[in-house]
Protein: Diaminobutyrate--2-oxoglutarate transaminase
Amino acid sequence: MNTNDLSSFNNYESEVRSYVRGFPTVFHKAKGYKLWDMDGKEYVDFFSGAGALNYGHNDEKMKQKVIEYIQEDGVIHSLDMASKAKAEFLEAFHDIILKPRSLDYKIMFPGPTGTNTVEAALKLARKVTGRTNVVSFTNGFHGMTIGALSVTGNAFKRKGAGIPLNHTVSMPYDKYLGANDLGLEYFERFLEDGGSGLDKPAAVILETVQGEGGLNAARMEWIKEVDRICKAHDILLIIDDVQAGVGRTGTFFSFEPAGIKPDIICLSKSIGGNGSPLALTLIKPEYDKFAPGEHNGTFRGNNLAFVAATQSFQYWKDDALEKNVQTKAERIHAFLEKMISEYPELKGSHRGRGFMQGVFCNVEGLADKITDKCFEHGLIMETAGPNDEVFKLFPPITIDDEGLETGLKLLEQSIKDTVS
Ligand code: PMP
Structure:
């Protein structure tokens, strides 16, 4: 293949039944925050593989480590057997990530994807408590398998299950995720209402910033209060940090500023370092109740991902990366506020925090039009929200000033061209 011809992907008549995301080109090469297509056209990547590429494409040091490992015939697939790469990964994750944050967790490999870690977390919470219901939130996104989908608050996605997914309690998002009202007070009363006959839930699952659901960011006080209620009622708190974790919000774990220690933490996407599939379920030691073999699978620990991931933790040995995200997040926020005020046609309002920010456009279809225009101008960006109302800035967290400013300039041009 040597052209940007998409027919082999998109031709439903052909034997190759597939489809591709709505960027009409064929990508070929990538480095850092840049991508190139088959014609050599350059794109700035403000999508980062939906959060799987927090360190950008082909980080040089990770790449070298993986090349060395392959050249030495390092074992690639080893199921859940012990391997040197796995041992080094576990040691680095413990020493660089968990220990300095005083986090004491058992580390489980639930399978290669975000959905797998959520699935494991739900099973475990039910096994530990012997209860069924799980409380989740409208617009929350947790994955596509039946269990993970049952806690996903998106009507369209739920329809894909083909059956009613009714073993959860879904809380309306606005009232509970950071709004200045009595949302949590109501939630607690609901839990204490013995007269309702409703079963006490096993767990609450939430994203601190809803990645797919529209970049709705929970206030830290709200997160603390959810944590307190869970403890008071003996309900497990599962934080799904699949998208918001691994530095995306400015700290390794997105919940760090709230000072909580969730019972179960779900990680995937960028935990694999260079985009390799890897997922972790972090479990408080007292809840480490799966018997050996009770939750298994073939792809639970890809050694190439371990090698890249071990190298990625070097970024966390000092606070340079955290500072980069925190400083540039302020710049992104200021830029977006400027766009909102300079372009009233957006009917825009700001969403998110850290490197998970965007603008909710209260005009049907506008956010999609803007991201289409971005693509024309050489900027890869996605939309989020139940009706794709939010355009979403998701640059790699390693991006430099030049990369960020280039992307912002392309975005401004795209907004201008779309609304005028
Ligand atoms: N949880 C969250 C918060 C996610 O954003 C995603 C993916 N967008 C998932 C779970 C599911 O991950 P995966 O697509 O790797 O199965």
In short: The CA atoms of residues 48 and 396 lie 6 Å apart.
